[in-house]
Design brief:
Blueprint (H helix, E strand, L loop, with lengths): L3 E9 L3 E4 H18 L1 H6 L10 H8 L3 E4 L2 H5 L18 H17 L8 E5 L10 H9 L4 E5 L5 H15 L4 E8 L19 E9 L8 E10 L5 E2 L22 E2 L1 H22 L7 E6 L4 H12 L12 H4 L6 H8 L9 E8 L3 E9 L1
Parallel strand pairs: 4-5, 4-6, 11-12
Antiparallel strand pairs: 1-7, 1-8, 2-3, 6-7, 8-13, 9-10, 12-13
Helix pairs in contact: 5-6, 8-9
Bound molecules: coenzyme A.
Length: about 375
């Protein structure tokens, strides 16, 4: 058996940002247009008027201040409210592969490796721009990697589930060097016209290089162990993909293909699951929570992370013990905990231990205990 280690991570950050204020101006303009267009039904009481959104609510409910997106103009156009992404020809790289490449290049550079030295690519994300051929195989080709590649989707937990799959293959020797890539175009999946959730997501791509510890060129983080768990719930879901349902009037409904959630239920049900999962994983590993220098948590909501930090550590986390990046990136689905790890792991000394944890739809939760060497 070999010992797997994370030897590099990389983040691709899209060039365009949307602040809460910009988002709310666009949403409110859309709501005003909608209310004007449906004034008669609203007056007759057959249709509900759309309320305005507010930056204060967004920050207070989520901790989010801004998000990055692949296209800002389409999202902020009150007559459109979703990204305008260029249609690509069949011969061009897809947008997910393109986003992934920059993240992969950074992860490889951090480890002193070339794409040709990789023999497994897992594209692990919440949404794939197509079902096949796998986005991962396209990334494999663009990197000049050998071996094999496949896509996997465990929603917001995709990164940790991908890391576990890759680490286990490295342990047994069936692969030697793996890239787990998380390109998330959440902006195409979010309903920007729904006041309850229009502020939640942002776009990004992350990559994690995993290889044998004894082959690491520049140190890294040994993967001591990982644990994944799932429990079915439809409280975070999209209802239809290619089997798109039609409404009674015969029209297809785009809303049915997008992100939906019962936010309050998610809070109540996911938090106990995540806390028990982390504490159980630590106990199995023979570690006290106090042995962790840092938690790199999924980045969905600040209140959620504060709660998890308190429950796991048994006290309020000290500054830096549980860093958030969601104020800048919003919820980037599977990529959030890896952005936090990428940004806040450079100060670890050999022997120090931390835990990466992601959770979300499924429900799903994945945790990875890592030790610096
Ligand atoms: N602007 C202003 N007010 C808003 C609003 C907005 N954009 N959206 C909702 N509100 C209002 C609601 O109408 C409601 O009003 P009411 O009390 O008069 O009915 C009130 O604010 C509270 O809404 P609620 O949806 O209960 O807010 P919340 O505190 O639960 O926060 C979320 C909403 C989505 C931020 C929160 O539920 C959450 O983060 N849930 C889990 C998210 C998550 O991790 N999901 C997984 C995705 S991977």
């Amino acid at each position: 058996m070999f010992t797997p280690a994370i030897t590099g991570t990389g983040v691709f950050t899209p060039p365009e940002t949307i602040t809460n204020d910009e988002l709310v101006v666009a949403f409110n303009a859309y709501a005003d247009r909608y209310n004007a267009e449906h004034a008669a039904e609203i007056a007759a009481g057959t249709l509900a008027a759309k309320d305005h959104s507010s930056s204060e609510f967004i920050f207070k409910a989520s901790g989010i201040e801004s998000r990055y997106v692949m296209d800002k103009t389409g999202v902020l156009d009150p007559a459109r409210m979703y990204p305008q992404l260029r249609q690509r020809s069949d011969d061009e790289p897809g947008i997910m592969a393109e986003m992934a490449l920059e993240a992969c290049a950074k992860a490889l550079a951090a480890a002193g490796r070339e794409g040709s030295e990789v023999d497994l690519v897992i594209c692990a994300a919440s949404n794939m721009e197509r079902a096949y051929p796998a986005i991962a195989i396209e990334i494999q080709k663009l990197l000049g990697a050998s071996g094999f590649a496949f896509d996997m989707n465990v929603a917001c937990s995709s990164a940790t589930f991908g890391i576990q799959a890759a680490a286990d293959m490295i342990r047994t020797g069936s692969v030697r060097r793996a890239l787990v890539v998380n390109p998330e175009i959440t902006s195409g999946h979010l309903e920007w016209r729904d006041r309850d959730c229009h502020f939640i997501f942002g776009d990004v791509a992350t990559a994690t290089l995993i290889e044998r510890r004894d082959e690491a060129k520049a140190g890294g983080f040994e993967i001591r162990s990982s644990r994944c768990a799932t429990e079915f719930s439809n409280n975070i879901r999209n209802n239809n993909g290619f089997l798109r349902r039609t409404r009674p009037d015969g029209m297809a409904d785009r809303r049915d293909m997008q992100f939906m959630q019962e936010g309050r239920k998610v809070f109540k049900e996911v938090l106990p699951m995540v806390c028990a999962h982390i504490l159980g994983h630590l106990a199995e590993e023979g570690l006290e929570p106090a042995a962790l220098r840092r938690l790199w948590l999924h980045q969905a909501n600040k209140t959620m992370n504060d709660f998890i930090g308190r429950k796991v550590l048994g006290r309020d986390p000290a500054p830096g013990e549980q860093p958030n990046i969601l104020q800048e990136y919003a919820n980037t689905s599977s990529a959030g905990s890896i952005i936090a790890f990428d940004r806040f792991s450079g100060d670890f000394a050999p022997g120090e231990t931390g835990l990466i944890c992601s959770f979300g739809a499924g429900y799903s939760v994945g945790s990875v205990i890592v030790e610096k060497f």
